[in-house]
Amino acid sequence: MTIYVFWLVIAICFLWFIWMMKKLSKKEWINISFFFNRILWFFLSTVIFSRIFFIISEWAEYNGMTNPVEFFIMSDYNFSLYWAIFWFFLVLVYSLKTNKIRADKYIDVSVLSFLFVSSLWYIGAFFGWQVHGRETNFWIEVLYSHPYSLVQYEVPIFPLALVYALCCFILFFIFYSLSTVVNIRGLIWYLGFISFNALVLVLENFSGKYDIVKSEFWFHEVKREIHKFLKKK
């Protein structure tokens, strides 16, 4: 029997996410039933739409899909993380607005819970080979020598997923600590989103996987030209 470590970790992350939301909701005096009553909508929106937008972004590979079952069954992590986040918060904000509930506390709790489980999520991505770096010389590189590894590098490469996991845990620790001493609701999720996106913006430069943004918009070439211009100055 083949056991996919990454999918096992995803299932654990789901349970941890719920546990952390329950703990933070109790701390912030939030009715946790608000989340539990909509958990099916949260789950369906994140899974289905993150899968849809992943297929759209990789249309050259998936345009021959004819069997609807192929949409749900896959052998790798084939979801869009950012679209999963977007649709989760879209359902959350819509539910809050329709029920005329102040959103700050609920979004704070959701962002902190997301940062909490992200560490475990990236550890799963490390062992499942879904997130990996490129060849570097920082002396922290790891070699993927497993015969079934999906990583094509034959030399030690940057442990991107583990660095993500460590940084996400640090972000969670910082903002959780901040939430205990600062009583400004809405500040946590705002700074949390900015910090996580800044983290992705920096660390994706070390990614060893195909990046449609880098490839289509020539970010590396633009950075190279800017560097040349600054050297001349």
Structural notes for this entry:
The protein is mainly α. The model is unreliable at 212-219 (pLDDT under 50). Helices cover 67% and strands 0% of the residues. The protein has helices spanning 5-27, 33-36, 39-57, 59-62, 69-72, 81-98, 104-127, 160-181, 187-203, 212-217, 219-232. It contains 11 helices and no strands. The protein has one domain (5-59, 77-208). It is globular, with a radius of gyration of 20 Å. Helix 8 (160-181) runs antiparallel to helix 9.
The secondary-structure class comes to mainly alpha
Distance between the termini: 61 Å
Report the sheet with the most strands, covering strand number, pairing sense and barrel closure: none
- How many DSSP-defined strands? 0
Q: Treating each run of at least 4 consecutive H or I residues as one helix, how many helices?
A: 11
What string, H for helix and E for strand, traces the elements in order?
A: HHHHHHHHHHH
Specify the overall morphology: globular
Overall pLDDT: 80
How much helicity do the residues have?
55-70%
Strand content: under 5%
Q: Which value, in Å, is the CA radius of gyration?
A: 20 Å
Q: Give start-end ranges of low-pLDDT stretches.
A: 212-219
Blueprint of the fold:
Elements: H1 5-27, H2 33-36, H3 39-57, H4 59-62, H5 69-72, H6 81-98, H7 104-127, H8 160-181, H9 187-203, H10 212-217, H11 219-232
Helix pairs in contact: 1-7, 3-6, 7-8, 7-9, 8-9
Task: Give a brief description.
The protein has 233 residues and is mainly α.
Features:
233 residues, mainly alpha, 11 helices, 67% helix
